Please model this.
Amino acid sequence: MSITDKIVAGDIRAVARLIRDIDDMVPEAREVLKDLYPFTGRAYVVGITGAPGVGKSTLVDQMVTHLRKAEKTVGVLAVDPTSPFSGGAILGDRVRMQRHSMDEGVFIRSMATRGYFGGLTQSTKSAIDVLDAMGKDYILVETVGVGQDEIDIVRSADTTLIVLIPGMGDDIQALKAGILEVGDIFVINKADREGADRTVSDIRLMIEMDEKRYENGWKPPILTAQAVFDKGIREILDEVEKHATYLRSSTERQSGIKYEKVRSELSEMIKDKIVRDVLSDLIQSEEFEDAVQLVLQRKLDPYTACDNIVSKKLKPGNK
Amino acid sequence: MAKPGLDGHDRGARIIARAYRDAGFEVVYSGLHQTPEEIVQAAIQEDVDMIGLSSLAGAHMYLFPRVVELLKEKNANDIVVCGGGIFPEEDIPQLKKAGIKEIFTPGTPLTEVVKWVEEHVEPRSS
Model:
């Protein structure tokens, strides 16, 4: 049985190993991903994002329980940060999800960011494909606790949940651009805390000021939840379902969204490969080191140094 | 890094996890009160190289060998199992005989715990 067959048949060890190889950038893994591609595109991908400590893992845990009750199979990818100093990581999202570890219909995998900032790594995107190919109905992707501008998840998810908690900043925060603009559903978790109503109305105001954008489309609902007590979870999944129906309701819209998705995914992938193949060689070259020294001694400005290297190394026809 | 059984004290396990993090390892922490079955299932889904079991509650003579046994059943006995915590001295040879590769007792310097893994655990290849 080939690795591809094993994965499509749902072999847990094969899946686990492939995700590890993807993470370790084993070249063969990329070949398997190519073979798996025809089996992808069936799962519904939900992204869960928000600042550290807002309750993403607990929310995911409860969503898994509800989806399992509805007899759906679920894959979970939970991303935690890599230490910028040691390269190590503590992956602790599983702690909140352990009750599902004996359930054959659930596959949970932790991943470290390994130095990539954007809340989601290229290997997480590939891991989504793997869980998709193994036949999971839903894939829940919990991003690393993100700040304001890490919106990678939107490209990979069908529905993006933004999780907030009361008291995380005044209404000025809600005016700012960035992550709050990309949510399909807003969840105010820990809603028993003081200020939940205020947070809801701040977000509502933000959405309503953007009325033009939502006029003929999906207007993000704002839900309150207390994930620890399993409150509000059913409503969240109902909205996910509604959003899925909305996406499917117009073929024109669907193909437009798909086009944008493929476009940005492919350009990200190319960027990633160029960085990996070209940049890693470049920063080890003598020329690069010389340029660093020149800038260090202030004999050359970094802008010129950059232009020199790029025009020399990246000329068409050159590698 | 896993906490099997009815043992609510994980300060030690967290400190060990932190030491591995600082040495550049990726550490999946299981949380408290795990059954051997849950630990093995998690280890397989995460495709880990090693399981570190921490126990301070006295049930190690059942829990630790059970993890090794389950790994064998699942054809995953290439995953190295180590243990740490408080054990009567006479239990240690028996644990090792049951397949626990190394036992770390209180007072072991963190550097030693990390060094042992660097020297004894080969990353498994595909």
